[in-house]
Amino acid sequence: MTVLPETLLLTPAEMAAADAAAAASGIDTYGLMEKAGQAVAASALRHYPQALRFVVLCGPGNNGGDGYIAAAGLIRAGADTRVFAIGDPGRLTGDARRAMEACPVKPVASSQLQLGPGDVVIDAIFGAGLARPVSAEVEDLIFKVRNAGIPVVAVDLPSGLCGRRGAPLGAAFRAARTVTFMARKPGHLLMPGRSLCGDIEVCDIGIPLRILRRAAGTVAANHPDAWRHLLPTPDPASHKYRRGHLGVFSGGASHTGAARLSAGAGLAAGAGLVTLASPADAMPVNAAQLTAVMLREVETAAALKDWLAASKLSAFVLGPGFGVGDKARDFVLALEGRPLVLDADGITSFREQRNRLFDIYRAREAPLVLTPHEGEFARLFPDLVEAEGQSKFEKAVAAARLANAIIVYKGADTVIAAPNGRTLINDNAPPWLATAGSGDVLAGIIGALLANGMPAFEAAAAAVYLHGEAATRAGEGMTAESLVQHIGPLSG
Question: What residues does K(+) bind to (predicted)?
């Protein structure tokens, strides 16, 4: 069997192209359907041995065909199985019709569905390619199953969920398990789709990897395979100056904590030196709470330029707790396109003057990494937020091209996008990472990897993944301070 790459992610259109290419190469498409249906039956039996009855809901296309084959497999295994058709099964064609005719149990109309304790539903109504709102018939089924409180095993994707955007199209099943084939789809990773899929199994049904890779576009899952080879690794000749010098900018005396989190994270993530550039009134506050992180007074843009002229600095983080306004803009302009992670207040400071920021990094090929959460993204890219029918990763790519920057569009489904369209969707962050200060920690990790010379896209992607790993190690109940203490080398 093929070992499928962990990064592999195909949009519904790309998966359809892979299916067509497999058929054109001479692969038996009914054989693929048989393997898919058998994988679903095997998963259902393995995870629900206590089921009293399997209820298979079969749709009007190939997803329904998978369902008929799954039903046949369940029956052969001795399980009590009923099949319900959505639409007229007599209108099925091709492989799906063949699967329906081979099923030992004939389908009955979905209007006759009655559910009871011990039932397990196999949702084989629609696959990942659904692009329109579900019908009233399917919506009624979704609510009937939901109200019954019984487990659902989804075939490919929970019916009603957009495979490209991860958004419900009117209504969608909430699955306990989803069995998909050859590759995950963006809708498996993007929220709220991920929360509707339950545990996801990717089953190899025999499409050659060369066909999948040829069909794949520029979006993939964020996994160490995409950037592990570029991670900085200390060697016996390493010293602090070779590992980069990260500069982090502090806010005033009452707003210093966020920048200290970034600075501490930068040091923990491998920067050789970290200096917290602080205004005069914040110097005593920061000095009282820093040890390995160095401190320098930088009050004005002129003082910043003097520091840049006198010191060799590799990368910068600006924004956490810094304050919104002219000073933030002046500092960014003074950095003259040096490698920069712009976060929080730094992003908001350019909401009315974004072209000033974009022009700096368009003219100079130095890396700019923008790390907006949903609200900050809306402030800087209001035109993109309002785009109808666009997925989160498509909006992130559009923003990256507009800004000539790496975009880290944060959330439970953080998306990392580059101006060339390359995109990674992250899915290793535990829910407790949504806590005050965690974004400041992420900015510091990205800054450390940039300071080490890692390319900006890979630095951002690696930082997002390592951030999630640190949160998993820290455990539920973590704070941003304890998160910093769990930043460490890539595990596994």
Answer: 63, 123, 159
